[in-house]
Amino acid sequence: MALKMPLVVAALLAVAPCPALAKLPVDPLGSPTWTALGATFFGNDPVRFDDRVKVIYPEIAENQRSFPVTVDARGIAGVKRVILFADLNPIPLAIDYTPTAAAAFLSTRIKLDQRTPVRGAVQLADGSWLVSGGWVDAAGGGCSMPPLSRAKGDWAEHLGEVRGVAQHDAGGTRVALAFRHPMDTGFVGNTPIYNLETVELKRADGSSLGSIQIEASVAEDPTITVMPEAAVGDRIVLAGLDTNGIAYAGTLAVKAAPAALAAR
């Protein structure tokens, strides 16, 4: 027997369509995945392209396993989130960074699986996003090659190792971190996805400086540089965790940068 829908409900459904995603701007790079990625990363939030989001990288990827990218949006006020992604990678998102008490600056190395747009996007306090980036030529295969530490067979001996330095000059404090991790993407036969997943930076009093979410598209043995709000003599506490629960931890004392570096 057919079910009868109340007339009031039927009328409401007729005039209340499902909410649509916010209209994305036309992609100046002409990426075939822009619409899908925009819906995934930005949802209903307003989006516009803005060259003040500086995405710095080589035009050609000499090493598709480890490609350097910097997102610098320090010239924009009110940034509360920074993401880095490569459109045509099988794992597009590389890093999602919340600079709680830090500059809108992030530098790292990622894998590239083919020629692709590489982009940085920042979210402002009003929820809107600013996006920039460009095409990078890459031979490909960066996400489907086994990490070198797997080939050497010594990767498990170094899990949990982290090195770092925190230096302060007139431009602020830079914290550079280097983790030992294979960063498996899951695209190599019989090797499941396995990656460093989170890194938290805090002051000695426990207050947050920033939170970094990391995906397997970040290069093996990840290196990450950020610019937290800290002065010479401050201590910065880091805590990281990978997808298997291996912990990374350490404390860095902020030191004055050597004169040669501070002069840059």
From TrEMBL:
Record's keyword terms, sorted: Signal
Signal peptide residue numbers: 1-22
Pfam families the UniProt entry points to: SoxY
Keyword Transcription tagged: no
Source species, domain of life: Bacteria
UniProt xrefs under NCBIfam families: fuse_rel_SoxYZ (TIGR04557)
Domain Ig-like SoxY: 40-143
Protein's organism: Sphingomonas aliaeris
Protein name per UniProt: Quinoprotein dehydrogenase-associated SoxYZ-like carrier
InterPro entries membership: Fuse-rel_SoxYZ, Ig-like_fold, Ig_E-set, SoxY, SoxY_sf
